[in-house]
User: What shape does this take?
Amino acid sequence: MATPSSDPLARRYSSLDRAFADQKIPVGNQPFIRAFCSRVGVSTFDKRSGYIKANRCVDGPALQIYYGWTNGFHSEEEARDAVGPGAKVWPSDRGAHLWGVDHPVTRATTGVQPKAPVFVDYGTCPRCHLKLPASSTCDTCD
Assistant: This one.
């Protein structure tokens, strides 16, 4: 008899709603994810550390659904067809010829955005023409 941790069915979600709740997928991403899972043809969802593994009805790579993005699409065309116009589609580093998509809500869009760094120009050294540090003394010439 298999132990629960070694039994792949023990890690299977009973529904996509259970997977969303367990992985804390934002409500704003759920319709988007449901739509592309339907278009791609996903049959089951498995629990993984940090993501939902969406198993296809036909042969092909499983989709890896994270909080703010998904990867595992066969091609750029499949990804674009699955998510529709306007979504950000990108080549995945997961495997050769796989593609990913950004969800409408990502961690970057949910928090406070960091301010752009402020650069101060302290001038240029008159001898070597390098930018001066805050001390206004050239590290190279002095």
Observations:
- The longest strand covers residues 42-48.
- Residues 30-40 form the longest helix (11 residues).
